UniProtKB/TrEMBL annotation:
Protein name: Fe2OG dioxygenase domain-containing protein
InterPro entries recorded: Phytyl_CoA_dOase-like
Cofactor: Fe cation
UniProt-listed PANTHER family: PHYTANOYL-COA DIOXYGENASE DOMAIN CONTAINING 1, PHYTANOYL-COA HYDROXYLASE
Residues annotated as transmembrane: none
UniProt xrefs under Pfam families: PhyH (PF05721)
Organism: Ciona savignyi (Pacific transparent sea squirt)
Length: 244
């Protein structure tokens, strides 16, 4: 049922360990997503957005924050509905590392290069790849408007070196070619409220949005409490999470 709590079964945990991701339909109800979009449209959060050039004439916009507040975006980051499953998927208590909203506008939304999140989170002083992200669709995401793509099982490659491509961090192109030869590319098509949990070493990307439709997603990211970075950096250190 959309918007209801769910339990990670052993089969789901095995699938996550095998594939590096877990797709959950109806993680949030349509009414909850409408409320989130209404919150974002007020502009208090999105006024802090910045452009991400894709190196090919188009830009996506992103806004990012470290500590969830008490508005509706903060409730998303602190929601018990997925924090309990996160503990089982990552094997321990988690804290909120940061949340971002990626906004691809019609006809102008840029692509995201193939990358691993740990490819650059590693440089923030995080020793183990015990992090994951939960991407929830605010609008319908499909091939037409630049949905997420993942390489199934690519978290098993371990961390790959990353380089600057356009205004982004991308996986080493030569290494990436070889990875794409041996693993399946999956288009993650989502309805509003659907979510995908994915490991920080999963290779993922998305295409430009040439459609006349918005493609917005919210992506809270989490780290295990016992994996606190050994240096201060621009994202959150281990901080107790007040669940709602």
């Amino acid at each position: 049922t959309p918007g209801e709590a769910f339990e990670v079964t052993d089969g789901m945990k095995n699938a996550f360990d095998r594939d590096g991701f877990l797709l959950v339909r109806g993680l949030y109800s349509f009414a909850e997503i409408e409320r989130l979009e209404k919150c974002l449209k007020l502009g208090h959060v999105t006024k802090h957005a910045f452009d991400l050039p894709d190196g090919d004439t188009m830009n996506s916009r992103m806004v990012i924050w470290n500590h969830p507040g008490v508005d509706y975006t903060g409730l998303f980051g602190r929601c018990r509905r997925w924090l309990t499953p996160l503990k089982k998927l990552l094997g321990g208590e988690v804290y909120h590392y940061h949340t971002k909203v990626n906004m691809k506008e019609p006809h102008t939304g840029g692509s995201f290069q193939w990358h691993q999140d740990y490819g650059y989170w590693y440089k923030n002083g995080i020793l183990f790849p015990d992090l994951l992200s939960v991407m929830v669709a605010i609008h319908k995401c499909d091939r037409g408007n630049g949905c997420l793509k993942v390489l199934r099982g690519s978290h098993k490659f371990g961390r790959i070196d990353h380089v600057r491509i356009g205004g982004q961090n991308g996986a080493d192109p030569e290494r990436l070619k070889e990875c794409q030869k041996v693993l399946e590319e999956v288009f993650v098509e989502l309805e509003p409220g659907d979510g995908i949990f994915f490991h920080c070493n999963v290779l993922h990307s998305s295409e430009q949005n040439h459609s006349d439709r918005k493609r917005w997603v919210i992506i809270p990211c989490y780290n295990r409490m016992d994996n606190d970075p050994y240096v201060d950096h621009h994202h959150a250190r281990a901080t107790k999470l007040h669940k709602v």
